[in-house]
Amino acid sequence: MEKSLLSSEEIKVQEKLAIFLAFIAGYIDATGLIKWKTYVSFMSGNTTQLGTAFFSGKYGVIIISVTVIGSFLIGIFAGTCLSLWKKCSTKTIAFYIVSGILIFYTFINYRFQMGNIPSVAILGFAMGIMNTIVTTVGHQKVNTDFVTGTLNSLARNTAIFMMSNDRDEKNQSKANAVHLLLLWMGFLSGAVTAPFLLSILKNWILLLPAVLLLTCRGLIFNSITPKN
Description:
It is a single chain. By secondary structure, this protein is mainly alpha-helical. 72% of the residues lie in helices and 2% in strands. The chain has helices at 8-36, 43-56, 59-84, 93-112, 116-130, 147-163, 167-201, 207-215; strands spanning 136-137, 140-141. Helix 1 runs antiparallel to helix 5 (116-130) and helix 4 (93-112) packs antiparallel against helix 5 (116-130).
């Protein structure tokens, strides 16, 4: 197994960011499910809904599912291009973009009451960009809004930790499992928080993750977040 080029402090920064972003993803995903009956970051669920809608003739579900999936893909494409753009040296640019989109959407929606399709398109695009901000924690590849993959990797690393006789491998798999468990808990916490705050914040529900994203820039100041 390769030795990590990152220091323990840099790995801790990655872990904090990943958990933070997972909380925001869970929060926004739960908001999307409650308000528009669709997911804005969980594309496995949207793909399942899309498939079943073809046979039930629910054209509204088909349109909204295709819209959010397409917007999410475009967001990932844009976020990845941004991370690979050599002229862009600002590490926090993706945070500002996603936060700006959430703030822009909140005020426009408050003024004009945007429909379901433009709403999920905008938020799906924002979640796609956010998905590219942190892709690894130490050796472990992570996805801050893909819970199925997180649980899959968690179970695999736990099995390796229990079955392996190699000390280094056991230590690494244990560390990976802890990172993944905290990531899942972060997403779950966000999903639990959103329904509670929705009744309080109402149309301003997305301002909270926008503000949280802006605070993230302190976590990555002078730190290294490697890109895949």
